[in-house]
Amino acid sequence: MRISRRILATAATAAVLLPLSACGSGSGDSSSSDSSGKVQGDISFQTWNLRANFKSYFEGLIADFEKKYPGTHVKWIDQPAEGYADKISADAAAGTLPDVVNVSPDLAAPLAKAGLALDLDKDKAAAKYKSEYLPGAWAGNEIPGLPGTYAFPWYLNTGPLFYNKALFKEAGLNADQPPKTYAALFTDALQIAHKTDGKVATLANVPTIEDFGRYGVELMNKQGTAFAFNDAKGVELLTKYKQLFDAKALDPQALTATPESSGQKFLTGAVAMNPGSALDLHNFKTQAPTLYKNIGITDQITNTGHVNMYVMGLLVNSRSKEKPAAVAFAHFITDAQNQMSFAKKVAIFPSTAGSLEDPYFTKEDGTDETRVRVAAAKSLKTAVNYTPVLFSDQMKTALRNEVAKALQGKESPKAALDNAVKACNQLLQQG
Amino acid sequence: MAGSTAPSGSRVRRQLPTSPWLFAAPGFLVTGVFVLYPFLSTVVDAFTDRRTLIPGRFVGLANFRELLHDDMFWIGLRNSTLYVLGVVPALVVLPLLLALLVQKNIPGIAFFRSAFYTPVVASIVVVGLIWVWLLDERGLVNSLLETLGAGPVGFLSDQWLLLVSAMAVTVWKGLGYYMIIYLAALANVPRELHEAAAVDGAGAVRRFLTVTVPAVRSTMVLVAALSSVAAFKVFSEVYLMAGPSGGPAGEDTTLVMLVQRTGTGLTGRVGYASAISLVVFAVTVVLMLLVLRADRKDEA
To answer: What is the pTM of this model?
Structure first.
């Protein structure tokens, strides 16, 4: 059998044209759906770096669900924190997105735009659960420009600001009166840098979009169609950070720091303050006992009266073959009882209505852990997720790079923020 | 009986065109699926506005026009080019000197050969972390410098020092690999040439320049070609040392880092990243051609 030139030419043409087949329409279906059918079948459930510490908890939860709904089987997949968004995007692009996926609102947004997330408001089975959650938490998974809600609210998290009392004392500051406002923070930071001859910085990270939000900067316009953090308040914040950077009150390596590296600097006493959560107390106790003896805990610094919170959700794949089971499972994991039991295993906070009134979140027993938990639960009632839902990774990089230019003196704070807003708006328009 | 089972001449002729294709089929399949298809897909995507989850539309040369006005692209091109200029000469010369050192068969030399080769087999992530710890503002190198009275040096916070540090790590990690290639080449240099040169009164340096270098010239070209392509496509070292943002203000970003940053994630601009990939491909092809052309000129 000879392979003719015609066959070879056809194969070559197909190889060239095949990739073009990816270029078609693929928007999601926005019509209402009903997942109230029989709960049965096999579904997959993906969590975000939870297996290592909570394996038995989730296995128990899955067993309870399978017992409650005979005929169902849940396959649990856990992905590491590193590259989580990349893993989801690879699955989504390949059509292998799990039926129920652990997401934050900024991860839910592109999936919803691509029509891969079930609109819970439009789905008859899912919409009836809305009243079980805190209104703000349910609204946390709304996507600007898209009607609907695209993930069940799961746990909320916020955290205090830790500080090293010993370093505060060395700099002649009152360690029992940590800064509460940005103005006090900047003054104390400059004093610590001055007294330690620049050897101890107070902060280890450049300002992020959440910092601009806490400072009181309007992040987006009223319509939510364009970014606006280059206003006078934004410029003021960046100007203050520049002063800190010049005085070494902001760590010189802050321009390339990650949350992990800045946490490490706090552990070693190179940095005086660092944000964290109640989970960190355990780390301090085991990894840095000297620091633990001197640890101070204070509230997040905010000019708005509202602290920042992180919101986790469970998205239901709109193309799931077992949608009733997927919706039922996502609700099961996030219902009041199961969120409460999860909260008691780890320092997170439930998003279900009334759960934060539980004595577990309102009564102190004298330990630091309880103090942090009660204070955080209290602040959560008015907390805000300052990260705009449409603020993508590319936008975060654009802001970070422009902030770095301002801190290095290569651009004025105003010019840097103007450039960042321009770049972010351009990315926003590109969709 | 043998004659009756042997295929006739005409049957052999009929089978010849098919059997090579069958033997080559697995190779074609693997190459087609894992090399050709992704490459062609990248070429097609470069002319679309495709995003990770949103299929693209044909946009012609728009991505390439945008590249011309993208500061980050020029920064990436500059850094990747500087990387080639900084790393390639070192990787052509230093492994050769190292190979000369460990070429001799003296007791214990196997230990040094293995030691020099260790960085090659070490995970790049581990290597990156070790060097970050060493070069950190409070790391070992800066502690030593401070002991000597010099202030802390911003190896990881200064734009240029960071790039040079990453180059040093690339050279350090690549030395052993190219040393092995040179060792093989040196083993083929006739000993008589060295002896003749020595009889003529040539010293060690003279013998190196007039005997060793000409004898391993083609290997040097090979090393230059391999290392220049690898250097232009550098990612891991810079990513690990400069962080995901590509150093302060992204000033240490290389082209491949830019491809990764632009084209991945849920909001990745696959079309635009593909356009950058094509530029990387074109430049590496040109680099290879330049090196090979220089080699041919030398031979002529």
So the answer is: 0.84
